[in-house]
């Protein structure tokens, strides 16, 4: 009978040491995981962001250089709306592809302003109120201005002020 008690105690001792081993391994894994996470977070959170650019940056290819810029003075235009009179106050900066294009743009500024006023004046409030409408306007403006210019092209158009009311 004493042998049975010793065997029973020995079996319990092996089970408790196995449980202890599993607990130690789990604790070690948790410590290593927590340490790794802390190391990555404290080392620099900018590295994951560099590997995964924001959605807007994925759609646009960054240019190595920025072309010369031409500012167009702020202007106010009546825009179409069924509910009453609406206005757009905007200022635009044009990025040109060459210095010669900048000179031509300054010479043709009355033509450029006229093209902008005619195009924007025929837009409705609904067309200009959302992002898609602003992007469409930017595209149409670029196309129209490039038809006016002979010695260069508008590379990009930036709205530096845009208020619809």
Q: Could you explain the architecture of this structure?
A:
- This protein is of the alpha+beta class and 165 residues long.
- Helices cover 59% and strands 20% of the residues.
- The protein has two domains: 2-59; 69-164, Tetrahydropterin Synthase, Chain A (2-Layer Sandwich).
- A three-stranded antiparallel β-sheet has the order 1-2-3.
- Helix 5 packs antiparallel against helix 7.
- The model is unreliable at 45-52 (pLDDT under 50).
Provide a concise account of the structure shown.
The chain has seven helices and three strands, in the order H-H-H-E-E-H-H-H-H-E. The protein is α+β, with helices and mostly antiparallel strands.
Helix- and strand-based class? alpha+beta
Strand order of the largest sheet: 1-2-3
Largest sheet: 3 strands, antiparallel
Order of helices and strands: HHHEEHHHHE
Average predicted local confidence, pLDDT: 81
Q: What number of structural domains do the residues give? A: 2
User: What is the approximate shape?
Assistant: elongated
Spans of 5+ residues with little confidence (pLDDT < 50)?
Answer: 45-52
Oligomer: single chain
- Tell me the number of strands: 3
CATH topology of the largest domain: Tetrahydropterin Synthase, Chain A
Strand share of the residues?
15-25%
C-alpha Rg, in Å?
34 Å
Number of helices: 7
How many angstroms does the end-to-end distance come to?
A: 97 Å
Second rung of CATH, namely the architecture of the largest domain = 2-Layer Sandwich
Helix content: 55-70%
The CATH class assignment of the largest domain is Alpha Beta
């Amino acid at each position: 009978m004493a042998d049975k008690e010793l065997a029973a105690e020995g079996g319990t001792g092996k089970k408790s040491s196995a449980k202890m081993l599993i607990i130690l391994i789990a604790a070690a894994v948790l410590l290593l995981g927590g340490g790794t996470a802390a190391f990555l977070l404290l080392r620099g959170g900018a590295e994951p962001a560099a590997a995964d650019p924001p959605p807007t940056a994925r759609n646009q290819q960054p240019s190595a250089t920025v072309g010369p810029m031409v500012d167009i003075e702020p202007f106010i235009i009546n825009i179409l709306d069924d509910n009453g009179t609406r206005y757009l106050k905007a200022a635009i900066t044009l990025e040109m592809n060459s210095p010669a294009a900048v000179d031509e743009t300054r010479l043709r500024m009355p033509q450029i302003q006229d093209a902008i006023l005619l195009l924007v004046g025929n837009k409705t409030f609904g067309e200009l109120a959302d992002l898609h409408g602003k992007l469409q306007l930017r595209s149409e403006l670029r196309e129209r201005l490039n038809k006016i210019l002979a010695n260069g092209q508008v590379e990009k158009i930036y709205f530096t002020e845009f208020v619809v009311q």
